[in-house]
Amino acid sequence: MMHMTFYWGRTVTILFDSWRTDSWLSYCLTLFACFVVSAFYQYLEDIRVRVTQIGAKKRADVEVPLLQKKVAGKLSAGRIAGTVLFGVNSGLGYLLMLAVMSFNGGVFLAIVVGLTVGYLVFRSGSEDVAVDVDNPCACA
Highest taxon of the source (predicted)? Predict the structure, then answer.
């Protein structure tokens, strides 16, 4: 039975029917996996933003984001890498969202804390602070 409200307990099904926890050990390992994947999401987002910024600096005459020239039709390694990273990061973000939709309080906290720690470690100390407005994921 799927829960429709937050609950606290060690029995949870995440993403697949085969990913069920029935003991405290499996529940703790699942929470740890959610934490690590959430932090990894922030790491990938940092890499994607850096690849996009490097590509934008090579293409732009003016370093104002809204005034950059759009280069249509030119495929470069940087644009392809940024696109692939965007796809992987979007997919990972939606999987994290679906895991939160298990409505287990521990899973929710593990993912939020993982995103927070990942942001602290990978994204908060960058000197090139840029606002990234093209990410449709809510957990960016």
Answer: Eukaryota
Alpha-helical regions (H) of the chain? 24-59, 77-100, 105-118
Q: What is the mean pLDDT of residues 87-106?
A: 96
Cα–Cα distance, 41 to 110 (Å, whole number): 13
Total-model pTM = 0.78
Each residue's pLDDT tens digit, 116-132: 999 999 998 765 555 55
How far apart CA 60 and CA 123 sit, in angstroms, is 24
Contacts of 74 (CB under 8 A, 6+ apart): none
Q: In angstroms, rounded to a whole number, what is the distance separating the alpha carbons of residues 132 and 130? A: 6
SS3 131: coil
Q: Residue 79: its pLDDT value, please?
A: 84
Q: Which residues contact 118 (CB under 8 A, 6 or more apart)?
A: 38, 39, 40, 41, 42, 43
Q: Is there a contact between 64 and 26 (Cβ–Cβ < 8 Å)?
A: no
